Amino acid sequence: MLHLLPTLLPDPIWGLTAEFQADPRPEKLDLIVGVYRDENGQTPTLDVVKAAECQLAETAATKAYRPLAGNASFNASMTRLLLGDTSTELERAATIQTVGGTGALRLLGDFIKLAQPAATIWTTDPGYINHRPIFETSGLRVRDYPWRQSAEGIDVDLIFHCLADARPGDVLLIHGCCHNPSGIDPSAEDWTEIAAFCAKRELVPLVDIAYQGFGDGLSEDTAGLHRLVETLPLVLCSASCSKNMGLYCDRLGVAMVVAPEERAIAKTMRNLENLGRTNYSMPPEHSAAVANLVFNAKAQWVAELDAIRNRVSYLRKELCDTLERQGAPASFQALRRHKGMFSLLPLSPTQMQRLRSEYGIYGSDTGRVNIAGLRAADLSMAATAIADVAA
Ligand code: PMP
């Protein structure tokens, strides 16, 4: 039966990472994968997480099976983190622990297929490389809408124009903050307009928030989600703890459905649990237990996360300053306004390949670079290289 398997190309990101690892040049720079890196090029485990792991090792709680929805206390804390401690919408939310943000996206894809089988899900172009494959695997029709910078935020008029074919019940996927790969985020006015558009056209937003805390701050980064939840009866949300708790390989996230009324919650939860049950049964307890201790030490967590965000902002600003000094085209200055770890360099695939072959600077052919992969000591070299290939 194996001869029926399709022949697949290697994943572009992981393929490029293998190429980077094989490169013998010591000065090479990995700006490929979306993980935070410190000045030593390491992805550190947060101190607050280390302390939580020590505490858990001491108490050695049972490893017996847990409920299908995962850790209830974690789910409640995540709901408050996403909607705000004092939100009046908290009682409308059904939240289930998932296997990372990816698991949340897939669970919500399966959920949409169950609840609204004919729905089209609209994803951003450019967008996160895994959105389309995930939703197509759930059996959904996927179409793109453009995500372009405007003077203040994103070009909402272009978006609304391109969504002319969207039908009531279709799902509009929006990155909650720190858009991957462009770094372009909506302004407050853009969010208000998007919420009004969804209301008028009866679209259901799915807010994918994988970088909460990397834009303007933990609570600031949910402003767009809040605007949608205040305006609309039904909002879906996938959230990840991979970046903001640094729990990448421990696979922690949530899928949240903010339902039109409280009485829809039990039915929604049963369906989400059942979708998880037929896939992996239940999500991992250990990472949720760590997260609960992190929530208990919130001040320390926020301080560590603020330091991470400030380092990325510093690198972004320094890179732009250096590019300006080196005479790189003015189009590179747009990077200053971007949020989070990513930006798309205004370079062609051939120019990105030259960055790799001539300078050992590895970003995707699309121009996506992870700013956190830069080291302060390499900024000048990187800016010279970028200005050179752009010339
Ligand atoms: N959504 C977006 C926009 C992402 O960039 C990512 C991963 N970087 C995810 C979801 C998936 O996150 P996780 O690693 O927690 O599965």
From TrEMBL:
<dbReference type="InterPro" id="IPR000796">
    <property type="entry name" value="Asp_trans"/>
</dbReference>
<keyword id="KW-0663">Pyridoxal phosphate</keyword>
<protein>
    <submittedName>
        <fullName>Aspartate aminotransferase</fullName>
    </submittedName>
</protein>
<dbReference type="GO" id="GO:0033585">
    <property type="term" value="P:L-phenylalanine biosynthetic process from chorismate via phenylpyruvate"/>
</dbReference>
<comment type="subunit">
    <text>Homodimer.</text>
</comment>
<keyword id="KW-0032">Aminotransferase</keyword>
<dbReference type="InterPro" id="IPR015421">
    <property type="entry name" value="PyrdxlP-dep_Trfase_major"/>
</dbReference>
<dbReference type="GO" id="GO:0030170">
    <property type="term" value="F:pyridoxal phosphate binding"/>
</dbReference>
<dbReference type="InterPro" id="IPR015424">
    <property type="entry name" value="PyrdxlP-dep_Trfase"/>
</dbReference>
<dbReference type="Pfam" id="PF00155">
    <property type="entry name" value="Aminotran_1_2"/>
</dbReference>
<dbReference type="InterPro" id="IPR015422">
    <property type="entry name" value="PyrdxlP-dep_Trfase_small"/>
</dbReference>
<dbReference type="GO" id="GO:0004069">
    <property type="term" value="F:L-aspartate:2-oxoglutarate aminotransferase activity"/>
</dbReference>
<dbReference type="GO" id="GO:0042802">
    <property type="term" value="F:identical protein binding"/>
</dbReference>
<dbReference type="GO" id="GO:0004838">
    <property type="term" value="F:L-tyrosine-2-oxoglutarate transaminase activity"/>
</dbReference>
<keyword id="KW-0808">Transferase</keyword>
<dbReference type="InterPro" id="IPR004839">
    <property type="entry name" value="Aminotransferase_I/II_large"/>
</dbReference>
<feature type="domain" description="Aminotransferase class I/classII large">
    <location>
        <begin position="27"/>
        <end position="386"/>
    </location>
</feature>
<dbReference type="GO" id="GO:0005829">
    <property type="term" value="C:cytosol"/>
</dbReference>
<comment type="similarity">
    <text>Belongs to the class-I pyridoxal-phosphate-dependent aminotransferase family.</text>
</comment>
